[in-house]
From TrEMBL:
Domain Asl1-like glycosyl hydrolase catalytic: 53-273
Organism: Streptomyces minutiscleroticus
InterPro entries, alphabetized: ASL1 (IPR053183), Asl1_glyco_hydro_catalytic (IPR024655), GH (IPR017853)
Keywords: Signal
Name by which UniProt lists this protein: RNA polymerase
Pfam families per record: Glyco_hydro_cc
GO biological process: fungal-type cell wall polysaccharide metabolic process
Endoplasmic reticulum keyword on record: no
Claim: Lyase is one of the keywords in the record: no
Signal sequence coordinates: 1-26
Amino acid sequence: MRRRSVLTALATAPAAFSALSRAAVAAPETGTAAVRKKGVSAWDFTGVAQCLADSRAGWFYTWSSGPGSVTAPAGVEFVPMIWGPGSVTDAELDQAKRQGTTLLGFNEPDHPGQATMTVEQALDLWPRLHSTGLRLGAPAVATGADVAGGWLDRFLQGAAARGLRVDFVPVHWYGADFDAANATGQLRGYLQATYDRHRKPLWLTEYALIDFSSGTPRYPTQAQQAAFVQQSTAMLQGLSFIERYAWFTLSTSRGDGTGLYNGTTATQVGAAYRTAG
């Protein structure tokens, strides 16, 4: 997560192209292909299950190893995450194993205020995640997923050198250009560059339009955000190397200008996301 003012509370919550990766790109997520690409990040709030169902998301996550008090509607998959070094415990890993077949790795280890880990620390802890037997998503960096020598690049090289499995790469992206066509093109370029660099399937686990350049988050209008939803989801649905994507985020209670629901009522952005995918 990169929303500085929005996610301070969440920051403290417990929160080589392999044959498997080639198969996943050709036929994403063997055995779970029926799950919709479209997902959403969420946390517990009054009406969360109703909103999840109304959004027509196929999956969700809570930045935690379990769904907490969130009850998934029928047909909506919960995906666990091991958020940071403090989450690498027997209890958290056991809970994650009970949730399904896929595990998301550390949250923004390259960013102060989030998981905040060195590459070596993450690599040393990775065998614990590996031991779950679940399909593993790499740590999701805040920025620079496509950069040679960046945090993610060094992690993936280190994992390969140690014989550690990484099955797909989660990516975060926030756009400061509020023109929907421009932003969609910029997002696509980042995803393509990341895939070209690492040659693994991608999950876009956080994305929206938010401008952080002034230090205080600046949001587009609802109409601008909704137009971006429409164009970006159409693009994401068509990219074979994108296995899943998740909007930030389900509720306006922490999502400010990006939330899909105000209480249990869809915002203009939420209405656009409901019809996507």
